[in-house]
Design a protein that fits this description.
The complex is a heterodimer. By secondary structure, chain A is of the alpha/beta class. Chain A has nine helices and 16 strands. Chain B is of the alpha/beta class. Classes of the chains: A alpha/beta, B alpha/beta.
């Protein structure tokens, strides 16, 4: 059981929560994730990357977007409430060293897991170029935090409502064309964005690391639901990842797998929303 | 289908017992072998495929006593020799015959703390019942004394009458034992070490206790309330449980010893990593490991549609690959989740199938179809990346392999298509990498299984291991056997430490 110490709405559907979890705060490194459940008996297990941690406070920070029933339930919890199940830190930590120049590309909610990695890379002495993007202005999160780390900072929106009107791949391509080209790219965001970032850097031969958020149940290697094709191998995101070489990931298969339950979940979510409306009406 | 209802079976037994009770101690062996073997009452197959309730309902008192009277009370107890935890089987059975159920329970408890579980999930036909004299005399292992059912009868009787005894715990020693994993091996270690007076903490990665007993074995074979009850007993003894705790991740294993003051650690993390066939199409949408499929249905309660938030894949035609208990569980679960056709595809024949006989029989009754001497070649997908069919190959049996079973040999050009939308891969597990990734000091073999000596000790002092993480995928009772051995070694080690400390003081 884990108490919610702090909650803040970052944008329309995006929330930040600090959860009391002293052991996880102590052990976690950039790149790792937790799994939580909003209900101990019937809840779904939701994997979320740790956005930050504070050892003194014994807290870990998560940032999540409401996309379905379970994340909606989570968003309804408030400071002082308990999250019944919280386990972690899971996955392998990001490998951090001084690579030289690293481009950190974050799309939408992906900026949350990118933040601690960019922070660690900066601390290790890298020249950090940050590109953050979203569909529209109100979906941009952690702008100030990312700006304060970055040696160069680029912000773009698909609709041009804020920053440059572009997909993140455009500035990424320009940076890859520089001489010298960057030593490494880290891209975290929706699968389609990570796929196109990897395609953008491929011709330049710039190593591109992506962080995958696949369907998971246990998160400890037991179920295999998170498996992805990486090169010619099948990898488990929970124990082999979550970070992989973007040039080797079969994104199309991964995206198909992510949609395994799309129809059922839509149905579940609709039923759930209807029940919420009904219960409100009966009150 | 000639399904005898539990009422019919109970009535038959009531009439039969009158005849035998008068001569209970006077029957000759020959006479005893003529006592009809008691059939296990079970839920009607047509009903049970729509619910998750337990299939086998358990003997009535009369059935249990009649079955117990079939035991010849042999001098040479082959059944005890073949029991991994050495329960004094003839003695507890004799108590049942004489209606002394409390005594029977006490006899079982001398050797096993988890009879309600073992009675349900042990493969008795290859253990205690395999060499039973009655079975041999009747030339049919299925006619052996139903030891497992009798064990279950006693455990259920104890629970129903509220007579579960809490084992005695010795005074506190001040020593601390960490048990990693709350599956069958871990629970046995916890019980055995607690009895000696050590402080025991069980760490479980999931939010619920029981390990494979909970996430793997379905409710219709092992109800959750039985696992809960066994764990309650451990809690009552003073065992501490910590859920949502992944040793290696939440806390490094060595930190348990170096920082948290544990004097011994037992690793019983189970067979973590599901094996796949490594064939084309295995990552298509609709292909699951049995672990995932069963975990969604069991632990995450996906069977309770409308209540559970965890979705389960909707299936019409399901192929299950494999022939073990997990394959049977997956197939039967798929049926209960609404699949119209479920095929178990196994590359050998029924004889070589490792599943418990009773499970195979139950699966057949439930309409599961068995495709023997066949195996998947590749899985075919549609334009959306979902399973649409499976291409299979036919096999024939060749020479015996290392396991002694005849090796299946592929028949060339025997390909055919099986129309399925779901494939569940139940061909076993390799070892979970979490501990070896985070505790490189512990030696493992090339498959990642932890190497132990004859006392279950690993290459690192104070650290022991047992169950599937050592054995590869095995059975509940073998895991318990390893747990028992490990606990004995841990207790011995800790006793020696205590005595050494005392001697130093004097």
């Amino acid at each position: 059981m884990s108490k919610i110490l702090f909650k803040k709405q970052l944008s329309k559907d995006v929330y930040l929560m600090k959860l009391h979890a002293p052991l996880i705060a102590e052990e976690r490194s950039a790149g790792q994730f937790i799994i939580l459940q909003v209900d101990d008996d019937y809840g779904e297990r939701i994997p979320l990357t740790i956005a930050d941690a504070n050892v003194d406070e014994g807290s870990v920070t998560i940032i999540f977007q409401v996309v379905g029933k379970s994340t909606h339930k989570l968003s309804l919890l408030n400071e002082g409430d308990n999250v019944p199940t919280l386990v972690g830190p899971l996955g392998k930590p990001t490998h951090i060293e001084n690579f030289g120049t690293v481009v950190c590309v974050g799309g939408g909610i992906g900026v949350a897991p990118l933040h601690p990695i960019a922070q660690a890379l900066k601390k290790a002495g890298n020249h950090v170029i940050t590109i953050i993007g979203a569909r529209t202005k109100e979906l941009i999160i952690l702008e100030d935090e990312m700006k304060s780390i970055a040696d160069e900072f680029i912000l773009c929106t698909d609709d041009g409502s804020y920053g440059r009107k572009a997909l993140v791949t455009e500035p990424l391509k320009e940076i890859c064309e520089r001489n010298p080209k960057p030593n490494m790219v880290i891209a975290i965001g929706p699968p389609i964005m990570m796929k196109f970032c990897s395609e953008t850097t491929r011709p330049y031969g710039v190593f591109t690391q992506v962080s995958l958020n696949t369907i998971m149940v246990d998160g400890t290697g037991m179920c295999g639901g998170c498996r992805v094709n990486v090169g010619n191998e099948v990898k488990f995101v929970c124990v082999d990842g979550p970070e992989f070489d973007g040039h080797k990931v079969d994104f199309d298969n991964m995206m198909a797998r992510l949609n395994s339950y799309k129809e059922i979940e839509k149905e579940l979510h609709t039923c759930y929303l209807e029940s919420l409306i009904q219960s409100k009406e009966s009150k | 289908m000639d399904h005898k209802t539990s009422e019919q079976l109970a009535e038959e037994a009531k009439q039969l017992i009158v005849e035998y009770i008068s001569k209970i101690d006077d029957m000759k062996p020959k006479e005893r072998t003529h006592i009809p073997a008691q059939e296990m009452p079970s839920q009607d197959p047509l009903e049970r495929i729509h619910n998750l309730d337990e299939v086998a309902l358990g003997y009535t008192v009369e059935q249990a006593r009649i079955e117990a009277m079939r035991c010849l009370q042999c001098v040479k107890k082959t059944c005890v020799d073949d029991c991994p935890v050495k329960i004094d089987i003839p003695r507890f059975i004799n108590h049942i015959a004489h209606s002394e159920f409390e005594n029977a329970a006490a006899v079982i408890k001398e050797a096993s703390l988890l009879p309600a579980i073992c009675g349900r999930v042990c493969p008795q036909e290859v253990q205690c019942q395999q060499n039973c004299t009655v079975g041999k005399a009747l030339k049919d292992v299925d006619k052996a004394v139903a030891i497992g059912r009798l064990e279950r009868f006693i455990a259920d009787w104890e629970r129903a009458t509220g007579k579960i005894s809490i084992p005695e715990v010795k005074p506190e020693t001040g020593k601390k034992v960490a048990v990693v994993g709350s599956g069958p091996a871990g629970l046995v270690v916890a019980a055995d070490c607690k009895r000696e007076g050590h402080h025991v903490t069980v760490f479980e990665a999931f939010h619920k206790l029981g390990g494979v007993l909970r996430y793997g074995i379905p409710e219709f074979r092992l109800p959750n309330n039985i696992i809960d009850k066994e764990i309650e007993t451990l809690s009552a003894m003073g065992v501490e449980f910590k859920t949502n705790f992944v040793v290696g991740k939440t806390r490094k294993l060595m930190d348990l010893i170096n920082k948290d003051g544990y004097n011994a650690v037992f690793i019983g993390t189970g067979a973590g990593l599901p094996l796949f066939m490594n064939i084309e199409g295995e990552n298509l949408v609709g292909v699951f490991s049995a672990n995932e499929y069963l975990t969604r249905a069991n632990l995450m309660r996906a069977f309770e549609k409308g209540k559970a938030d965890t979705p389960i894949y909707p299936s019409k035609n399901v192929a299950v690959l494999g022939g073990g208990n997990v394959a049977m569980d997956s197939a039967r679960m798929a049926k209960r989740l609404g699949a119209e056709n479920v095929y178990v595809v196994y590359r050998r024949t029924e004889v070589e199938m490792p599943a418990r006989k009773e499970e195979v029989a139950h699966a057949k009754e439930e309409g599961i179809e068995f495709y023997f001497l066949q195996n998947a070649k590749r899985i075919l997908g549609n334009e959306k990346g979902k399973v649409r069919a499976m291409e299979c190959l036919r096999y024939e049996l060749g020479e015996p392999d290392n396991s002694g079973r005849r090796r299946p040999v592929v028949i060339s050009n025997s390909e055919f298509i099986l129309e399925v939308d779901t494939v569940i891969v139940a061909i076993g597990n390799s070892s979970n990498p979490l501990i070896s990734q985070t505790t490189p000091e512990i030696n493992v073999n090339k498959w990642g299984n932890i190497l132990v000596d004859e006392t279950q000790k690993t290459s690192v002092d104070k650290i022991f291991a047992g169950g599937d993480i050592v054995l590869g995928a095995a059975t509940v009772i073998l895991a318990m056997g390893e747990g028992r051995r490990a606990a004995a070694a841990i207790n011995k080690m800790l006793t020696e430490e205590i005595e050494k400390a005392k001697a130093a003081l004097n």
